[in-house]
């Protein structure tokens, strides 16, 4: 089993920054991808950014140039640096770990990000 614990959410004004962290623990495959998803009220959960173990990244168009995903493999931790935040970034952000050999998905409990205008 894999456990994911997120931290770093909060309330920020438009134009501000936040950094989310996701620490993974448990039986973690050496081949995995970590990512951040978000879900706003009344909307479907959507991918924000993802990163493989070797550092290949993928971003939603809406966050390109503003958000940066990174990871520390030694700490099994992923980060999401969010700059130039907009009110439309308001959502619950969920950390995800995809175990590639088994294609199992693990989720964190979510952390609220609120951007005021």
Give an account of the 3D structure.
There is one protein chain. A hairpin with a 4-residue loop joins strand 5 (46-52) and strand 6 (57-59). By secondary structure, this protein is mostly beta strands. The strands form two sheets. Strands 2, 4, 5, 6, 9, 10 and 11 form a seven-stranded mixed β-sheet that branches. The chain has a four-stranded antiparallel β-sheet with strand order 1-3-8-7, with no helix packed on it. Helix content is 0%, strand content 58%.
H/I helix tally? 0
Distance between the termini: 40 Å
Helix-residue proportion? under 10%
Q: Report the biggest beta sheet as strand number plus sense, adding barrel if it closes.
A: 7 strands, mixed
User: What general outline do the C-alpha atoms trace?
Assistant: globular
Q: How many whole angstroms does the radius of gyration measure?
A: 14 Å
Q: Low-confidence parts, pLDDT < 50 over ≥5 residues? A: none
